[in-house]
Design goal:
Immunoglobulin-like; elongated; six-stranded antiparallel sheet; alpha+beta; eight-stranded parallel beta barrel
Length: about 700
């Protein structure tokens, strides 16, 4: 143990210079080390509070000799971490040259933020955020990450609170990390192998809280970061005083032990400090013009649509983001990150797009991050859209917004999307050149938190966001949805049957698309948001999963489960494989007849053949995807493959008729069928004469 060597006595405490190379606050023998930096500071004070008390019990100025460059560091002895919370105050000059003190500021590198640990409740009117020292003592044991291949990912996007908050979720700790952990058996039964958690960093759900027709709405989604290094304490089922994050770590450990990776949705494009009228509790007080993009007249750029824009490519901000991601990988063993409005991370300090953004490059090549998934939402609120063009260094993947938009058009029978659908299903190599982007570029999805659920996609022609309080003006109008003949809820059996088939079509197509796939939690059992396509503010039944739907829509759940199992069984639909022994190309088109690769403006019928050699099974993997998005029945003939016969594995309609003798299929209107080629050997000398009508409930 190092000898105690105090050099000064200030405000009743023994202190000495600290470790300038490690940011934040952490325990050292007999004391706590505090390190912060500020370019514009004239001085800095450490302000100490007893938990929940209004007034500080000590204010300790950093001696001038405790500053090296723009960094302040100090060890304070005899500070049991359970007995205090802390903030900083920066001394600076105002416009007149007068020396002033900032409001109380949390530590940018704090591992826990106090005060808002009960969801939806601030303890008092004069509430201020404070920091807490965290003991990093979680035992990971003999921990092994799943380390799944990118194209093997079946990502399940979920909101921690909304996933189990409904009383019918059946968990002991609803709306928490522990509640989600209770649902791991459900995730395993479904078959997903990755969860993408909407923001879990400390955020302010009460930012812009409002009353709409007697109902409180708030910032439920959490895209409103207060601290990048701290978990959201209101998601913990119990108080974790000085051990904040342990419940989340237990969740991640349990998921990983069950082969499920964890991807965090991170929001480095803006913070909860807002614009000129917003609060000051962090970056604004340290170096406002350094951490945020500012206009020449001193106002905030707003490429995020949320009041401010983080200045991501300033060297100091860039280092902070890198430190943050490294921390979540090392201390939380996170498997990947999805970056909200990621094009902001590629903007220069003046807001202009950069050709080779240093932040994105440093994240791509960082050795600690070398195995984690980096997924960009390749657009922002400032109009910069980079799907297919996001700077990648063969490391960055993207939410494939073109997959979502073009496949939605195709699946609801719009004209002009046949060939585009073929490109999207087969890996989008027209926009993701493998030689430039690598093999892991596209995250295919039809639904996510932002927009309609899958059920609503085929129940509503237009958004219904009136309950948000903005006269239905918020949320996108470009949903590419179809209500199947009636707007919203209906008792019409034909419409309900069509909607069910459309949802199955979506799952069948998505799960046979090359690249990683993602869908929104609850889509597998027909969850609805009642037509709301921007439910960011609803902490209620609009956003909470209704687990009774799992029983009501069991056939849809079983179909989604079957499709996930099929995808896992057939790697050829996920990615390129070595050339098949049968000699056929890896991907080929057979639109209604063998080797018909013609696409016309009114093409709504696709036949896609996937072939490859499965090295694990030592055999060819051959799958034929048959899609009829025309409203009328269509006749298809499948290509003949020597020494193989076709077996019908998946059908989304009971009215699909398959004749194996001549490999022909009469496809029902708006339906999908999936066939697998099987060796003829051992089947009555190879003669197969069978007509199959899909009468199974799937």
């Amino acid at each position: 143990m190092a000898l105690r060597q105090p050099t000064d006595h200030v405000a009743g405490f023994d202190i000495r210079p600290g470790n300038y190379l490690l940011n934040g606050a952490f325990t050292v023998p007999e004391g706590v080390n505090f390190t912060i930096h500020s370019v514009h500071a004239l001085g800095c004070e450490l302000v100490l509070f007893r938990p929940w008390e209004k007034k500080p019990f000590a204010v300790i100025p950093f001696p001038d000799t405790y500053r090296i460059g723009n960094t302040y560091s100090m060890v304070v002895y005899d500070l049991p971490i359970a007995n205090f919370e802390y903030c900083y105050r920066i001394l600076e000059t105002d416009a007149t040259g007068k020396v002033i003190k900032t409001p109380l500021l949390i530590d940018i590198y704090t591992k826990a933020v106090t005060g808002q640990s009960t969801w939806g409740d601030k303890p008092r009117e004069d509430f201020t955020y404070r920091s807490r020292v965290v003991e990093e003592d979680f035992d990971w044991g003999n921990f092994e990450e799943p380390n799944l291949g990118f194209s093997d990912l079946i990502i399940y996007e979920a909101h921690v609170r909304g996933f189990t908050k409904n009383e019918n979720s059946g968990v002991k700790y609803p709306g928490t990390f522990a509640g989600l952990m209770e649902k791991i058996p459900y995730l395993l039964s479904l078959g997903v192998n990755a969860v993408e958690l909407m923001p879990v960093f400390e955020f302010d759900e009460l930012e812009a809280v409002r009353d709409v027709e007697g109902k409180r709405v708030l910032n439920y989604w959490g895209y409103n970061t207060v601290s990048f290094f701290a978990p959201n304490t209101s998601y913990a089922s119990v108080s974790e005083h000085n051990h904040e994050g342990n419940e989340l770590k237990r969740l991640i450990k349990a998921l990983n032990e069950n082969g499920i990776e964890v991807i965090l949705d991170v929001v480095f494009n803006h913070t909860a400090e807002g614009n000129e009228e917003g609060p000051t509790f962090s970056f604004k007080g340290y170096d406002q013009s350094l951490y945020y993009m500012m206009t020449p007249d001193g106002r905030f750029f707003n490429f995020s649509g949320c009041g401010n824009t983080l200045n991501c490519n300033h060297p100091i901000v860039r280092q902070m983001i890198l430190d943050c991601l490294r921390y979540w990988v090392v201390e939380y063993r996170v498997d990947g990150f999805r970056f909200d409005l990621a094009t902001i991370l590629g903007r220069a300090e003046d807001g202009s797009p950069m050709e080779a953004p240093p932040l994105l490059e440093s994240l791509a090549y960082d050795p600690i991050l070398s195995k984690v998934k980096l997924i960009a939402e390749a657009w922002d609120a400032g109009g910069l859209y980079q799907v297919g063009r996001f700077p990648a260094w063969k490391r960055w993947a993207e939410w494939n917004g073109r997959y979502r938009d073009e496949m939605r058009h195709f699946l609801k029978s719009d004209e002009g999307y046949g060939q585009l659908a073929f490109y999207r299903i087969t890996g989008s190599e027209d926009i993701y050149d493998p030689s430039f982007r690598g093999k892991n570029a596209s995250v295919n999805f039809l639904t996510c938190h932002d927009g309609f659920t899958l059920r609503d996609l085929y129940s509503y022609n237009t958004k219904h966001n009136e309950s948000n309080g903005w006269n239905n003006s918020d949320g996108t109008d470009e949903n590419n949805s179809w209500n199947c003949g009636a707007e919203g809820e209906t008792n019409d059996p034909e419409i309900l049957a069509l909607r069910r088939k459309m949802q199955k079509n979506a799952f069948a197509t998505l799960l046979t698309s090359r690249g990683a796939v993602m869908f929104l939690s609850g889509d597998e059992f027909g969850n609805t948001q009642y037509g709301n396509n921007n439910a960011y503010c609803h902490d209620d039944d609009i956003s909470w999963l209704d687990w009774e739907d799992l029983e009501k829509n069991k056939d849809l759940f079983q179909f989604a489960k079957k499709m996930i199992a099929f995808r896992k069984k057939h790697p050829v639909v996920r990615k390129r494989l070595p050339k098949a022994a049968c000699g056929l190309p890896g991907v080929s088109v057979h639109n209604q007849s063998p080797w018909n690769g013609d696409f016309k403006n009114d093409t709504r019928e696709l036949g896609i053949l996937f072939t490859g050699y499965d090295e694990k099974k030592k055999t060819d993997d051959i799958v034929f995807l048959c899609i009829n998005m025309h409203w009328e029945k269509k006749y298809f003939i499948l290509p003949e493959i020597h020494e193989y016969y076709w077996d019908a594995e998946i059908m989304t309609s009971d009215e699909i008729e398959f004749t194996s003798e001549n490999s022909s299929v009469m496809m029902d209107g708006r339906s999908v069928a999936i066939f697998v080629a099987k060796a003829r050997e051992g089947r009555d000398g190879g003669s197969v004469k069978k007509k199959t009508k899909n009468n199974k409930k799937q």
